[in-house]
Amino acid sequence: MRLSTKGRYAVTAMLDLALHSGNGPVTLADISVNQGISLSYLEQLFAALRAKQLVRGVRGPGGGYYLGRPATEVSIADIICAVDEWVEFTRCGGRENCRAGQPCLTHQLWDQLSDEIFHFLSGITLADLVERGRIERAKAARPEVAEAPPGKRRAA
């Protein structure tokens, strides 16, 4: 499976927003600098995210974006679907026009794979990714704790 740039950038931008929105609204310019995504591309993505109420904007000086709902309620699948980038493994998109109007021999296999990926990404929230990032940063800050065998770790 290869997720498009649009879907990957949308998830990355939303994660950046989740990480920084505790300090007030986050500007697209800040996300652009932080993540190396062009401002014009972010504007397109955030228009779609705003339409699905995954983000809310604040206009004027000091404005920017907040998450539209708590990070615990925004799944990665929500984000990808909001920017219309769901990846289907069947070329027919479920319309059974694989070949001569009939599903191909492996249609059901690829359709089930798409469903499994959707369910997997539906079970991961922005809050989960934020927490994973905190754990990774903590491990990086204290490599001796992360690498020591469980019985040999020093107390924090």
UniProtKB/TrEMBL annotation:
Pfam family membership, one: Rrf2
Q: Which domain of life is it from?
A: Bacteria
Which InterPro entries does this one have? Answer: Tscrpt_reg_Rrf2, WH-like_DNA-bd_sf, WH_DNA-bd_sf
A GO term from the CC aspect: cytosol
Q: Which terms are listed as keywords in the entry? A: DNA-binding
**SUPFAM superfamilies from the xrefs?**
Winged helix' DNA-binding domain
Report what the protein is called.
Rrf2 family transcriptional regulator
The source organism is Candidatus Thiodictyon syntrophicum
